[in-house]
Design goal:
Elements: H1 19-23, H2 29-54
Amino acid sequence: MNTNQEKFVKEISNIASSIKKEFNIEVDTEKVMVEFCNLFESKIMKRIEYCNREE
């Protein structure tokens, strides 16, 4: 996940982006990753619980 990167290598420069490039703001990369991982874990756990109820 690109957060504050503004320049990318030539091979991906036409498709790569970042939060900074899209919204013109700098973010705390660690906080973004922690929040993403927490949300992902929560969604996965809910899915596991749902699947276990069906058994």
